[in-house]
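Homework help thread (please don't just give me the answer)

Our assignment gives two proteins as sequence + structure token strings and asks us to describe the second one. The first is just a warm-up. Here they are:
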Amino acid sequence: MRNLDLTSLRSFVAVVESGGVTRAAKAVNKSQSAVSMQLKRLEDLLGVALHERRGRQNVLTEAGDQLLVDAKRMVALNDEVFARMTDHAFEGRIVLGVPRDIIYPIVPMVLKIFAAEFSGVKVQLISSYTSNLKENFKKGEIDIILTTEAELDAGGETLKQTSLRWVGAHNGKAWCAEPLPYVSDRYCIFNSPSLRALKTAGISFEMVSHADSDRAAEAMVAADIAVTTMLEGYHPSHLECIDSKGKLPDLGVQKVNIYGPLQESDYAQRLMDILRKTVQDI
């Protein structure tokens, strides 16, 4: 029993569909001579001519027409089986927790790289406050978390130290007002160090609002109604770090930390490596 060569059948289909050996060679990533040899070998194996000259055109013979139908089906079946057998759709699942203030630009960059390498691993993203993420991590409900905090807990790793900055509207004047109008998400971890710094510096301030979300706080800051505090490099493009010429107190630095599972799978380890590099490169 003789066996048909799928590579030759693929080249044969490519020649017919593309209209010639030159284009077919590019489609199957082979040289023109290699494709021509495959077609000749296929004809020799079957003992029939697959093409014939009609005037200036090279057309399929009756045998070629018959083979084309079966060749397409065989190539398609081959590709279907290969895709199914090598599909890692159920390779795994991992839960990643990231604070809202550093979602951008970190997460899109990380997920894009990770998805290209582990298309079969599903990543569930949870965005919340550092305190909530750490609590859920301890319960085992989240596999890997990034945090923004002043200190590092046991089992964690500091990836970067970033300045905490006063942030306002572009060319805004709210920071010049007395008392200083301040707004923030009521659960933001930066509230305590920011307000403590104002009190220490003897600067009067007014809590314009305890917003229920960071987006609501951003809206008030963008309207130049108040100022807030964010990590340098992670503030949205419609806001800017304030250069107060020393009028507002320095807020020091905060750590971007990572916590992961004690026993890491290959893909969990790789995700942590991508997170490390991305955070450190920003």
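The one we have to describe:
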Amino acid sequence: MSKQRTYSIDDLALRLASVSSTPLRDIRYFLSELTGSSIAELFGHVVLSHRQYQQLESMIGRRLRREPVAYILGYTEFWGLRLHVHPEVLIPRPDTEILVETVLGQLHDADCRCLDLGTGSGAITLALASERPEWLFDAVDQSPGAVECARQNAAHLALGSGRLQFHCADWTMLPAEIRANAYDLVVANPPYIDTASEHISEETKRFEPHRALYAPDLGLRDLFSLIDLARSLLRPRGLLYLEHGYDQAAAVRSCFTQMAYSAVTTVQDYAGHDRVTYAQWQGTIDRL
């Protein structure tokens, strides 16, 4: 029988204090994964087998190298869904739930065709699909690893494979089957961090995919490109929702207006920062 020992959870957490602002939370996530106990049960002390402790040591070692907890565990939570993640996909943030929440609060039609550009792990598409079982979705990412990750998440969540289609493509060269559609809704959380930004955590810089983080022109290039592109993809009165940086809303609204969208609106995140801007396309579809 494997020998067991009792460990102080606070002492284990102290080992991460130099690299994490939430060392106790990190340790409790690791222990929950190893023991099968819920986070709420993990206070005070924990009993681990020798093998479990070795696995914990490996997790702590990776965290000390500043690897994100989600990559160490291999999953994260988004909109109440457990999503598989790895270093080829951006870790979904709680702020992106604002985009999902805003869409769901405004669109209640049973019939809706949605296009997700830069889907990554599939977080936005899968969150919307979990709440709108009648909607149809196309989700696009240029990374084969990201597309496979999103497909795995969709299969695991069993949200209806027939209405979820994942495509490996750059949004500047979309496949014909996507260009042939007229979408009611286009959503995107594109790269929007200025390439010169110094306000990025060390773990994000080291481990998350830079192609999903950074954009030229003060972080605005991909946002502006998507506003232009969506005019050829949306049906008349269709809606485009974009996540962006806290200081980019004015520039995004201006671009929407210049490109003949209407009802341009910005929504704040949970911290009160501008985070999502959406608008309605009033024109006809202009096939490129």
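TA reply:
I won't write it for you, but here's a hint about the kind of observation we're looking for: The chain has two domains: 4-65, 90-281.
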